[in-house]
Amino acid sequence: MPELPASRTVDRCRICGSRELRRYLDMGRAPLANSYVDPAAPAAAEFAEELCLQLCLDCGLSQLTKVVAPERLFRHYLYVSGTTDTMRAHFAALARDAARAAGAGRGDLALDLASNDGTLVAAFSTHGLEALGVDPAENLAAEANARGRATWAGYWSSELAARVVREKGRPKIVTAANVAAHVDDLAGFAGAVAECLAPGGVAVFEFPWVVDFIERTEFDTAYHEHLSYLGLAPLARLLAARGLEAWDADVFPDIHGGTLRVWAARAGERAATARLREAARREETFGLRELGVYQAFARRALENRARLRALVSRLRAEGAALWAYGASAKGNTLLHFFGLGAADVPRAVDDNPKKWGLRTPGGRLEIVGPDALRGAKVDVLLLLAWNFEKEIRRRCADAGYRGRFLIPVPEPRLASAD
Predict the structure, then answer these.
(1) CB neighbours of residue 172 within 10 Å
(2) Does domain 308-415 have CATH number 3.40.50.720?
(3) How many CB atoms lie within 10 A of CB 151?
(4) Most buried of 19, 201, 274, 318, CB within 10 angstroms?
(5) Per-residue pLDDT averaged across 34-52, rounded?
(6) Given a cut of 90, is residue 81 above it in pLDDT?
(7) What is the DSSP secondary structure assignment for residue 37, as one 8-state letter?
């Protein structure tokens, strides 16, 4: 296998080019959050890289200090959008709302960037649209195509945009859900959207909102795939430089710990809504470019670590059997940052069959399916995928689990199964 490129140090903001970058949370050298370990494979040292957040004082974009080569992250990917009922319903509503906003009808093209397993592609198809996905994970693209969800394997680029226009025509809808945060060349990414979008069409960008990330102390959303922690103002600046204009915004407080959806169109085509202005006001009140806001977040994250580690130690001393629920990227970040491993929490339950039998990166928790809870002597479940708490509680009840839940964010607390 050829040697992969080294990580790149970020010394200029990827949106505005400023060098006014200030570090605010250093989580040490961490393994890649989605690099699950096959216990049957030959033992090998895990790749690890600095995981540290910094703020651009000029435009307010939070970003990692290091960019790991995407070939290490995305060519073979195990996260799938359609695992949870929550995300399937969320994307179904997005497809419906985007079709209405664009005035798209039968046969019009909807393009989904970073389409993963094709959940949103399938949702667009139910509205009679011609739907196409683009995703760099070759395994997921192959699976999506096998299920009739048309997907091209590759990284979104100007070249792919030209191919879409040439072979499919101009899309009336372009969606980019939970992908902008993963992109190093945001200027090229947004520019390619502008190059292919049909006149009168809509582009939709969805991402975990930095306001909720900071205010709710969601430090575990930081991992090497998430290069940027976006707000409306930096994104609007990025789009404006490529001839696109944000005109509306939706806030989803219960999706991924707080998600912002930004609607964009070609400049001058649509008037800004009250919802967009309200989102902008909230960012200003929050203090998007104020370093002290982020430093306070870092202090809270460190306090959370101390409190949760003490709580886990107390529970173990009392003889409680602990497992985790959610072998997710955010969960793996938390385990690393808190220094928890299989000796503390031996198993992690996960709903994604692709992960069963593997081990979590770093901590090496054994990953099992929800059925493993049946009859198991488990007293406490550390809820690593806390963003799906309601759905996880239902699944645990179905499996007969009656123990307690340890919810780690925004601060650790024990809760009963009721």
Answers:
(1) 24
(2) yes
(3) 25
(4) 201
(5) 90
(6) no
(7) B
pTM of the model: 0.92
The confidence score (pLDDT) of residue 166 equals 98
Asked if 239 and 264 touch (Cβ cutoff 8 Å), the reply is: yes
The pLDDT tens digits for 173-208 are 999 999 999 999 999 999 999 999 999 999 999 999
Give the pLDDT of residue 76: 56
pLDDT of residue 146: 96
Rounded mean pLDDT of the chain?
94
Architecture of domain 81-291: 3-Layer(aba) Sandwich (3.40)
Residue 7 dihedral angles phi and psi, to the nearest 5°? -65, 155
Return the residue matching tokens 């050829």: 2
Q: How far is 304 from 25, CA to CA, in rounded Å?
A: 13
Give the pLDDT confidence of 313-324 residue by residue, as tens digits.
999 999 999 999
Q: Roughly what angle, to the nearest 10 degrees, separates helices 232-240 and 274-286? A: 120
Question: Of 385, 389, 388, which Cα lies nearest the Cα of 360?
Answer: 385
What does the block give as tokens for 332? Answer: 């793996």
Q: Which residues contact 87 (CB under 8 A, 6 or more apart)?
A: 81, 119, 255
Sequence-separated contacts (24+) of 279-285 with Cβ below 8 Å: 279/232, 279/249, 279/251, 280/232, 280/233, 282/211, 283/60, 283/211, 283/231, 283/232, 283/233
Closest CA to 385 of 106, 170, 79: 79
In the chain, which residues fall in CATH 3.40.50.720? 308-415
One-letter amino acid for residue 31 of the chain = P
